[in-house]
Amino acid sequence: MDKIIRCITSDGSIMASAITSTNIVATAQQVHSLSPVATAALGRLLTGASLMGAQLKQRRAALTVRIKGDGPLGVMVASATSDGNVRGFVENPNCETEHYENGHINVGKAVGSNGTLYVVRDYGTGEPYTGVTELVSGEIAEDITSYYANSEQIPTVCALGVLLDKQDGVLLLAGGMLIQLLPGATQDICDKLEANIKKLDSVTTMMAKGMAPLDMCKAALEGFEVEVLDEMPVHYYCTCSRQRVEQSFASIPDDQLRSMVNSTGNVEAVCHYCNKKYLFTAKEIEDFIKARKERSKNK
Ligand SMILES: [Zn+2]
C-alpha cells in the first residue's frame, strides 16, 4: 500500500514529506496504457502532486499541476486532494522512449525543457489560486523545486523516482520526497540540511534498500530531532461522477449538446483521468436542456 508521511524538525525549521507511490503509478500505467517514458514522466508528476496536495491544510482542498512542454509527450496533468489521493493523464501516452547514455529514461526530452508548469490550488471557496513557472529541464522534480522557489519563495528540495525494469519496462518502484525550509531557518540549519541531502541516495535506491517513508525523512533530517505530523495511505483515485459530468454540460450551448448525440443515440463522455465512460441518452440530454431553461426562467 502506498503512503505519505509528513515530518517536521522539533525546532520548526524544516518540513519533510516522503511518499511511496508504486501502486499509484502502476494504476496510471494500466489505466492509460502508458509507454515506459510516459510512465516515468506521469509517474513522477503524480508522485509530486500527491506530496504537494498533502501539504494543503484545508479539508477537501485540491491541487492540480499542469505541465506543458515542447516535447512529444504533450500536456500532462496531475490532480491531488489534501488527503494525497491523486489522478492524472498525459496527452500522448504512447510517446516513444529514449534513454540517456547511462541507461536512464530521458524524461526531459519527452516533456521538453521549454514550457510552463502551472499549479492551481482550489480551496473550494471560490477563486482558485494559480502559480506559474517556466520549466527548467522537463525532468519534473527540478521543475517543481523551481516552482516553489520562484512562485512561492519557499526553498525546496524535491526528489521523484520511477524505476522501470530495463528489459521489459515493468514498473518496479516509485516514490518521492519534498523537503522545505520554513521561515526562520538559520544558515547553520541550511548548511546541515544541504550536507544531508548531498549524501542521500535516490528515492528508488532508498526504497530498494527497504527504507520506509519515515526512514527517508529521518535520513534527510539526520542530526535533527524529528516529529511525525501525520501519516496517510494514498491511492490513485478519480473523483469523477455522473453528476459532475452533467455539471460540465452546463457551459455547453443547447445546439452543441444536441450535436454530441452519436449514431447510437447517446452522448458519450469519457473521463480523461480514469477513462470511465458515461452515457446519456438523447432523451436525457433533452430533459437536461429543458430543466436548464426552466431554471433560467425562474431566475
Ligand atoms: Zn474519472
How would you describe the overall organization of this protein?
The protein is an alpha+beta fold and 299 residues long. It is built from ten helices and twelve strands. The strands form three sheets. A five-stranded antiparallel beta sheet has the order 8-9-2-1-10, with helices on both faces. Strand 3 and strand 4 (75-81) form a beta hairpin. Helix 1 (22-32) packs across helix 2 (36-53). The radius of gyration is 21 Å and the shape is globular. The model has no long low-confidence stretch (mean pLDDT 94). It binds zinc ion.
Keywords, please?
alpha+beta, five-stranded antiparallel sheet, Hsp33 domain, 299 residues, 10 helices, 12 strands, 2 domains, CBS domain Like, binds zinc ion
Would you kindly provide a brief summary of this structure?
The chain is of the alpha+beta class. The protein has helices at residues 22-32, 36-53, 107-111, 141-151, 187-199, 203-208, 213-220, 242-248, 254-259, 282-298; strands at 3-9, 14-20, 62-69, 75-81, 86-90, 115-122, 129-134, 156-164, 171-181, 226-233, 266-270, 277-281. The protein has a five-stranded antiparallel beta sheet, sandwiched between helices. Strands 5-4-3-6-7 form a five-stranded antiparallel beta sheet.
